[in-house]
Design a protein that fits this description.
Layout (H helix, E strand, L loop, with lengths): L3 H16 L3 H15 L3 H12 L3 H24 L5 E4 L13 E7 L3 E4 L13 H9 L3 E4 L5 H17 L7 E4 L2 H8 L6 E5 L2 H13 L6 E4 L6 E3 L1 H20 L11 E5 L4 H6 L7 E2 L3 H15 L5 E4 L2 E4 L5 E4 L1 E6 H6 L1 H4 L7 E7 L5 H8 L3 E7 L7 H13 E6 L38 E7 L20 E4 L15
Parallel strand pairs: 1-19, 3-4, 3-6, 4-5, 6-7, 8-9, 8-16, 9-15, 14-15, 16-17
Antiparallel strand pairs: 1-2, 2-18, 10-13, 11-14, 12-13
Helix pairs in contact: 2-4, 2-6, 3-4, 3-6, 4-5
């Protein structure tokens, strides 16, 4: 029986020691963890295939992505820009009176509890993006492993922990626990400073409420549900209907549609033969769903959608369950008019986590923004496929609407596939995420696990390293020199 008090206490002690380590030492440990995954790749992927049913190619790519994330955050740590160091020098001539010496930076929040995902057993699990960004920020991490891949979680944590601690990280910097109640109990522990989650809207909302209801609430970064609407204009359809059909089917069916960025709705002008073009591209080969729980949820959503008035089945697909309720599916594609989607919104708008998508036929692009504004809340992504030289007020309005309702605006691409890079944004307004100011992918994901602190008139010898004038960590420092305030507001005059 695991002692949660010991787990939390160990994380708190490790967090303080880890945060105090110089950036290059912390980065060295992250790179060591990435390097340790590669020799174990064959065995880890074998276990992952057995537990999740995902393909070898997909899992190999995902493990590589996991290692790349760790290396990227090593560079983020060494660069130091994420600390956002700002120094206002003492100023006796400040226009509002004497200004004291003020120095501000962002410091680690403390131990982070990360609830791992089912659909990314490497990239959003034990050593995935949430763990990597929290470690990079200087926080210890406790991972609540997903029950869909317990052996893989244990194997991964052993490899990564050995590499981290072997490179100088404190003991207990990364720990693994299991069980829903264990996760809830730790989320309530006062030593836990932040939470992260990837999963269903129902569970994510429950955990977010727990984090908010604590005597001292903590930030909780949950990635929940998203239907990722895609919009195709008439000009795009006229230019490349076959290409759009091919890519749409690939995006919907990849990993059996078990991706948070799967395009759940494709809005296209009513056009003769387009739906049939899509149907001709759908393969009938089965793909195993991740686990019985997901298979059961997919069956319920699929049955509801197929039985909804106004829905026309383009590709019926299939869902086969074995004696243990494990499921195998082929893609299902349906069609509905814009009017019927509005009439049946309560049955159709929820996410279908699996290989199913809805084609929505609309009459004119001028009405698209008004239509979708009535239907959708927040999403991770929104995509536009327009003509090569198309430019209109309707198109510009649609792009602006997506920017107001999603974290990532795509033009001419597909939402599945999330690049691990500094400019990435993987988060959006509710219910896509619980907090749309953060991202769970990319270099800025580190900011979720930091909080700003200002030091006023503190002697140099007592300041944190990033704020000292000798700057031993060699991080960027933004300085405001004495006397500058008298020229504030003048720069625009020279433009």
């Amino acid at each position: 029986m695991i002692d949660l008090d010991v787990v939390a206490s160990t994380a708190a002690t490790a967090s303080a020691a880890w945060a105090a380590m110089p950036p290059r030492e912390r980065a060295r440990a992250l790179v060591a963890a990435a390097d340790a995954l590669t020799p174990a790749q064959e065995e880890l992927v074998r276990i992952a295939r057995e537990e999740t049913g995902l393909t070898e190619a997909r899992l190999n790519g995902e493990l590589m992505r996991t290692a790349v994330q760790l290396r990227m955050f090593a560079d983020v740590v060494v660069d130091g820009g994420y600390l956002d160091v700002r120094i206002d020098e003492a100023d006796t001539e400040f226009v509002l009176g004497v200004r004291p010496d003020l120095r501000r930076y962002r410091q680690p929040v403390g131990p982070v509890l990360n609830f791992a995902a089912s659909n990314f057993p490497f990239a959003f699990s034990v050593a995935g993006g949430d763990t990597a960004s929290a470690l990079a920020a200087g926080c210890a991490v406790i991972v609540k492993g997903h029950p869909g891949h317990p052996r893989l979680s244990l194997g991964t944590v052993e490899i990564v922990t050995a590499a981290l601690e072997g490179s100088g990280a404190p003991s207990g910097i990364l720990q693994l626990v299991a069980g829903q109640q264990t996760g809830i109990d730790l989320l309530n522990d006062p030593r836990i400073a932040a939470g992260s989650f990837t999963g269903s809207t129902r569970i994510g909302r429950m955990l977010a409420n727990i984090a908010a209801a604590r005597p001292v609430p903590i930030p909780f970064y949950g990635e929940l549900g998203s239907v990722n609407p895609v919009f195709v204009t008439r000009a795009a359809l006229d230019e490349r209907a076959e290409e759009i059909a091919d890519e749409f089917v690939t995006s919907v069916s990849g990993s059996a549609g078990q991706l948070c960025t799967k395009p759940g709705f494709l809005f296209a002008p009513a056009a003769e033969g387009f739906a049939e073009l899509i149907a001709s591209r759908v393969a009938a080969s089965e793909h195993r769903l991740l686990n019985p729980s997901i298979a059961g949820g997919y069956r319920e959503r699929r049955d509801t959608i197929l039985a909804t008035p106004g829905v026309e089945t383009i590709v019926e697909g299939s869902l086969r369950l074995d004696n243990e309720a494990q499921g195998w599916a082929t893609p299902t594609i349906v069609r509905v008019s814009a009017g019927d989607l509005i009439a049946q919104r309560d049955r159709l708008l929820d996410e279908a986590f699996g290989p199913l998508s809805v084609i929505v036929e609309y009459e004119g692009e001028e009405s698209l923004v008004a239509l979708v504004d009535e239907l959708f809340d927040g999403n991770l992504t929104g995509t536009v496929h327009a003509g090569r030289d198309e430019d209109s007020s309707a198109l510009r309005s649609l792009i602006a609407w997506i920017a107001g309702h999603a974290g990532r605006v795509l033009f001419g691409g597909w939402p599945t596939g999330v690049a691990v890079t500094s400019a990435q944004q993987h988060g959006g307004p509710w219910p896509a995420t619980t907090n749309d100011t953060g991202t769970s992918v990319g270099g800025t994901a580190i900011s979720r696990f930091l909080r700003p602190v200002a030091y006023q008139s503190v002697p140099q010898r007592l300041l944190p390293e990033p704020l000292r004038d000798d700057n031993p960590w060699h991080v960027p420092q933004q300085r405001a020199a004495a006397g500058e305030s008298r020229s504030w507001g003048e720069s625009y005059r020279s433009v």
